[in-house]
Write a structure and sequence with these properties.
The protein is α/β, with parallel strands linked by helices. Helices cover 43% and strands 14% of the residues.
């Protein structure tokens, strides 16, 4: 890569705030961004885990701070933003990584849709959707004030093609995708003099500690029926790894992505592109 291109994709010195940083995916993301020169602010309700990660990043020569943050409380998010500004003097990008599912919001093996807990469904929706909207409100108020900013949300394959048994998560992520597209326009309406971009990534299926048991049998090698179904609908014929999310994020953070707005980056090995009609290995027959 020539010097001009390297400069265009550089994130060195960029201050990136990451919610959900104590999780597997965005913890790995924080490590990679720091290794590429970004100053990382790790925000999560699990403040102790964020502090451990921040120490690890600093020990490796990176720059990181940790802040306990409840993405459903405006005062908590504002306090985290204030800490970032006190240390770094600015914030360039907010990555909304906080989210997840709950057992009670998933159709149980011995039940059906009618037995789902509305309370649990609401908690999942609150975390994934409102846990994206609220931090974005707080940070966008700052971005509008300084005239520049960048928001990267987290959607899911389940937003684009709803998965069985997880209505709360699928519905909430679909709402995040709609919010991303809506806000990419609305920030231009509300803050015409500010350069604020809003995009999102939609990860496919990744073999992480949190979902390994859903993809593999107890032996750790044999695919579950769900794992087999996913692989059968993924043209690249494998699960992804967390590091493969970094490239698109770097594009969106860097000047190389300066005209990218309102976009969903599917990082899924082709899952979203495959209709499911026809076998991926039909030429072998």
């Amino acid at each position: 890569m020539n010097t001009k291109a390297e400069s265009l994709f550089s994130i060195s010195g960029k201050v990136v705030a990451i919610t959900g940083a104590a999780g597997v995916i965005y913890g790995a993301m924080a490590r990679s961004l720091a290794a590429n020169g970004a100053k990382t602010a790790l925000l999560d309700l699990l403040g102790d885990k964020c502090e451990e990660l921040a120490k690890e990043i600093r020990a490796g020569g990176g720059d990181a701070l940790a802040a306990r943050c409840n993405v459903l409380e405006a005062e908590s998010v504002q306090a985290a933003l204030n800490r970032i500004l006190e240390k770094y003097g600015k914030v360039d990008t907010l990555i909304n990584g906080a989210g997840g599912n709950r057992k009670g919001a998933t159709v149980p093996p011995d039940g059906d849709f009618t037995s789902l807990s509305l309370e649990e469904l609401n908690k999942v929706f609150q975390l994934n959707y409102m846990g994206t909207v609220l931090p974005t409100q707080v940070f966008c108020a700052y971005f509008a004030k300084v005239g520049k900013g960048n928001v990267i949300n987290t959607s899911s394959m389940s937003a684009l093609a709803p998965l069985t048994n997880v209505p709360g998560y699928s519905n909430a992520k679909a709402a995040v995708t709609n919010f991303t597209q809506w806000l990419a326009v609305q920030v231009r309406v509300d803050f015409p003099n500010a350069d604020i971009r809003v995009n999102e990534i939609a990860p496919g299926f990744f073999d992480t500690t949190q979902n390994h048991f859903l993809l593999f049998e107890p032996d750790g090698k044999t695919l579950t029926n769900r794992g087999k179904s996913i692989i059968a609908h993924t043209p690249m014929n494998r699960f992804g790894n967390a590091d493969e999310l970094v490239g698109p994020i770097i594009l969106l953070i860097s000047d190389a992505g300066s005209f990218v707005n309102g976009v969903t980056f599917c990082i899924d090995g082709g899952f979203n592109a495959y209709s499911g009609v026809g076998s991926l290995d039909e030429k072998k027959r």
